[in-house]
Structure formats: structure tokens, C-alpha cells
Amino acid sequence: MKIALVHDYLREYGGAERVVEAMHEIWPEAPLYTSFVDWPSFAKAPAGKVDLFKSWDIRTSWLADNWFVRKFHSPLRFLAPLIWGSMDLSDYDVVISSSGWFMCRGIRTKRAEVGVPWFSRRQGPDPTSFHRGFFAKAVTALETSHLAARSNGPVHICYIHHPPRNLYGYPTGSDLQKYWPVRAYATIVNFFLRHYDWETAQQVDYFIANSEETARRVKKFYRRESTVIYPPIGAGNHKSQIPMTKQILNSKFQIQKKNAYFLSVGRLTYSKRVDLAIMVCNRLKLPLKIVGTGKEEGYLQKLASQGQALRSKNIEFLGPVSDEELGKLYAGAKALIFCALEEDFGMVPVEAMAHGTPVIALAQGGVVESVIDGQTGVLFREPTVASLAEGIERFEKLGRPAVAHALAGNAGDRWEENCRKQAKKSGKERFQKALLAFVNKFAASNPHLHNVR
Questions:
Q1: Could you tell me if residue 240 is inside a domain?
Q2: Which residue intervals define the domain Glycosyl transferase family in the entry (predicted)?
Q3: Which helix (H) or strand (E) holds 52?
């Protein structure tokens, strides 16, 4: 059984990369196809991850050798059809793509006629359809069913993290849309890429969504059904009394006991809205630790320093930390503050709950599937300073002895028990078992394939 894994690109280590890592554990011999790998940027990943990924059989596209395109892959995203169209995986039995905004599910999986050049074939997504779209119809696949080509190549299973956010009006990692030249450029490019995105979606045999929210988006934008398998979360058994690492012990607010600080974890980009957590914690003089890096790091550090000159610094930027250190930070936190806009699932809140830590989260997107208001945390309704401040105040009230007694039991124990129970729904073992069963189910129904493991 020949299996291939596909991923958008490797540039930083986040939730999507955790999914790919868990997939590779199931099929360690499977090559990973990706558009490019930016090892200098990926070096910021937690300790040990770079060496782990370098030990894999990673196969990149022609983009990997072009530093300019690699650096500006986002504004040059109109090249995505050419990138994925140049990668032929039709000789595999099963292809599993881990697809996000760069649409790696556009790889060619359908066998074409002998002697016909790849750029003129119509089996699978046409890599030139976008560029010909200026003069003719960009997409012809609308007239054909995705079922028609299943027998002409490998089974293509797409684990979709989200339809491209930039194509459908969802917040992205930057706020550049406020500039009219960017809006004008995006309007033109995204129009044609939406056609390509639809076409690639119709070539997928089976969709797996990372949340019910993502499944609804797949249905809305692609008219396709999908099976929900929540992404893998390390359950973690870290306790606050475990000896701390040197980096954490030297921080301003040492982890000496549970409930000493609030925590923010994730990429420091616009869509994560870490600025809200910073402004509220500055206003309320609350200790906040921030884990992660990103393009808005400089801006957020300046924002954090405002108004702190006359008092001890209450906000810390810890940068990237190892999985072990992150587990200890989760376990020692009073609560995680999570302000991401329209998150498709939100792995960070579930990671926090896996360590018994409640979450104060913006009630948007897939987060509402994991954070149960009043049970595993508190949901606030609007991405504003006032709404988050109100959410923190409500969280504090729920933790007071009188309220906790009325809700049955000690507040800390209640939070921890509920959070761990909820997080078990997204354990890594459960994810791997469900994914393997899904793939094997198809293999068992196809006389030409055997079980994949």
C-alpha cells in the first residue's frame, strides 16, 4: 500500500503541523509532499521538532528553490495552481492532504493519457485554468461530478483545517485589507482563486473536517459533506508543583502555585487578537504571559509597554517554548485568554483544558464546540476590550468560594475536572485511531486496496 501525505508548507510549527506530525506517526514511511520548507523560520519551533521533521522524507515543489516566491508566497498565491499542478501523485494508492489556505489538495492524483503534457491535462485540477481564466472560463469542473474520476487514480482524502480564510471574508493573519491597493489586488486574485478552490474541492474523494464549524463551511462553500475528526491534542499530565525550567523560573511571575497569572498562546498575528488581552490586562493590572512569535510581535511589545513605566511589568513575552515548558505554563495558569477571530477549531483552548486550565474565549467559530460557558471556561461575545474585561470579571466571580459552593464543589477542582473531561474528546490517540479507521474503511470497500496498516 503506497501512501503519501501532503501539506501546504512548513514555515512555522502550529496546529496544522501538529496534525501532520500525528499523521506521520501512523504512516512513518509515507513521504510528505509540500510546496516549500523554510528551515530558518521553522527553527523557532519547540525543541526537537526541527530534527524530527528533518528525519522525514520531505519532497518539495519547484518553489523551494525560488527564494523570492518562497518569501512572498502570500501575495504571489496566484501561483498555487502551478505549484500543486506540477506535483504528480497518481502512482500512489492513498493520498492524504492536510489542507489550509494554500490549497495543497490541488495536487494531481488522477492518471492522464500517455504523451499528453501535464499542463494540458484535465484529469484533476487544471494548473493553468487560473491563468487562462483571464481570457476564457477558469473552471470547467462545475459541469462534472467529483465521483467520475475516482477509479482513475489514488483515493484522495483531505483533512481540511479551514477553507482559505482570505477567499471567503474571514479574518487573516494580517490587517492589510485596510489599504485600498491591497483590497484591489486581493479582489482580482481571489476571484479566480475561488474558482480554483472550488475545482480542487470537487476532486477530493472524501473530506475530513477538524470541527463542526469547518464542516459547515465545507458544505457552504464546496457543497460537499465531511466527517468530523477533532485534531490531536496532547493530554498532558503536568502539574504546577513539577520543578520549573530555568527560563520559566527566571520570568517575572514565577510559577510557584496555580492561579498566579493569565496565559496567551499562539501565533502573534492580527486574527489572534492578542492585543485585546494585552490592553485588558494592562488596564486591570493583571499578570499575563504570552507564548509564541509572529509578524505582530514588535507592535504587541510596544503596546504592552504603554502605561507600565510607573509600576512593575505585568506582561511578559516568552517567545517559543518547548512542549514540556508549555505544559507547565498551562498547568500553572489561572486561565487561558483566547481572542482569536472566527477560529475554525482552536487547538490552544483544548490544550489548556487538557492541563485542567479553564479558558476565557471569544464566542466565535469552532471555539464554542470546546469551551462550555460556565463549565470549562467563560465566553465573551465581542472582540472588544470592554467585552473581554467583562468576561474576566465574570470568570473571577465564578471562582469565588460562595459561587463555587453554589455550583457544587471547590472552584479550582470543578474547573480542572470539567476541563480535562472535555479535552479527552480531542486526544491524539483518539485522533489517530479515528483517522486510521476512516482510511481502512475505504480500503476495505475497495477490492484493489488492502488495509493501510
A1: no
A2: 250-399
A3: helix 49-54
- Domain with residue 300: its CATH number is 3.40.50.2000
Q: Edge-to-edge strands of the sheet including 377-380? A: 315-319, 288-291, 262-265, 335-338, 359-362, 377-380
Q: Are residues 392 and 439 in the same domain?
A: no
- State the CATH number of the domain containing residue 155: 3.40.50
Same domain, 172 and 139: yes
pLDDT in tens, 81-94: 999 999 999 999 99
Higher pLDDT, 257 or 188: 188
- Cell representation of residue 27: 504512516
The pTM of the whole model exceeds 0.85: no
H-type alpha helices, 56-150: 67-71, 80-85, 129-132
Instruction: Fill in the DSSP letter of residue 306.
Output: T
Residue of 162, 165, 50 whose CA lies nearest to 98: 162
Number of folded domains that form the chain: 2
Residue 252's contacts (CB-CB under 8 Å, 6 or more residues apart) are 287, 312, 313, 314, 316
Q: What is the pLDDT of residues 112-146, one digit of tens each?
A: 533 334 343 444 554 444 444 433 333 333 333 44
Each residue's pLDDT tens digit, 40-96? 888 878 778 999 999 999 999 988 888 887 788 888 888 899 999 999 999 999 999
The stretch 385-411 carries a mean pLDDT of 72
Round to whole Å and give the CA distance between 170 and 276: 18
Residue 366 makes CB contacts below 8 A (sequence gap 6+) with 210, 211, 212, 213, 214, 343, 344, 345, 346
Stated as kind and residue range, the H or E segment containing 26 is: helix 15-26
Residue 451 lies in a domain: no
Radius of gyration of the chain (CA): 23
Is 237 among the domain residues? no
Beta strands in 110-269, from DSSP E residues, in sequence order: 155-160, 206-209, 226-228, 262-265
Measure CA 74 to chain center. 17
